[in-house]
Amino acid sequence: MRSLLITLGLVLISFQVSAAETKPLSDADRESIARVESYLNDITTMQANFLQVNAEGQIARGTVMINRPGRARFEYLPPAQILVVADGTWLVFHDKELEETNRLPLYSTPISVILRKDVRLEGEVTVTSVEKDGGILRVNIIDTDEPEQGGLTLVFTQRPFELRKWLVTDAQGSTTSVTISDVEEGVQFKPELFVFRDPFYE
Fold it and tell me: Is the preceding omega at residue 79 within 30 degrees of 0, hence cis?
């Protein structure tokens, strides 16, 4: 269960943001948000390596595959025994070691922000702040109706403009970082990669 909870940090984010921390967005902020939306909407398929570090310093590595809209796959390298699959409807967490599988509606999770067919950082989600520092752009996002239920910080390099990292923070203030590298776009994936078949029921 411990490994499953660590993995949940990738997509289920409890990210407390009070009204006092939410500042009005400037015109420059809105230009940055539009740039992020355009970048994400231009992605059809993407594959990358990821490095995940949680608040306790535990490290996990693996490969993430994204096939927009609605599909993603996180394959963790050993010793982690985790597989996460978004199939367009469900987000499936499979712990091979515990022989345990959990499913959540995909579009109730913050990761759906970047998997939607038409990415818009407004309406159902709210950008609480945009930060620029040393060639890095950070966009902090929460759920509009239930800000305490989930949130996401996307981190981009500006030259070139590319997604490089996301940060998740739980209700207790513990932060997990996920850094991606060796990014490839336009990758051809087999459709079955985004369909979870439970090996214990086959």
Answer: yes
According to DSSP H, which parts of the chain are helical? 2-8, 27-42, 112-115
* C-alpha Rg value of the chain to the nearest Å: 16
Q: Which two tokens stand for residue 5?
A: 């909870």
10 Å Cβ neighbour count for 94? 22
Is residue 194 within 8 Å of residue 86, measured between CB atoms? Answer: yes
Q: Tell whether the model's pLDDT for residue 19 goes beyond 60.
A: no
Task: Quote the tokens at residue 43.
Answer: 């992605």
Closest to 43 measured CA to CA, from 113, 110, 104, 105? 113
Q: If you ran DSSP here, which 8-state letter would residue 61 be given?
A: E
What is the average pLDDT score of the chain? 84
CA–CA gap between residue 127 and residue 105 (Å, rounded)? 22
In order, the DSSP letters of 164-184 are EEEEEE-TTS-EEEEEEEEEE
- In 10 A of CB 116, how many CB atoms? 17
Give the global pTM: 0.83
Is the CATH number of domain 2-184 2.50.20.10? yes
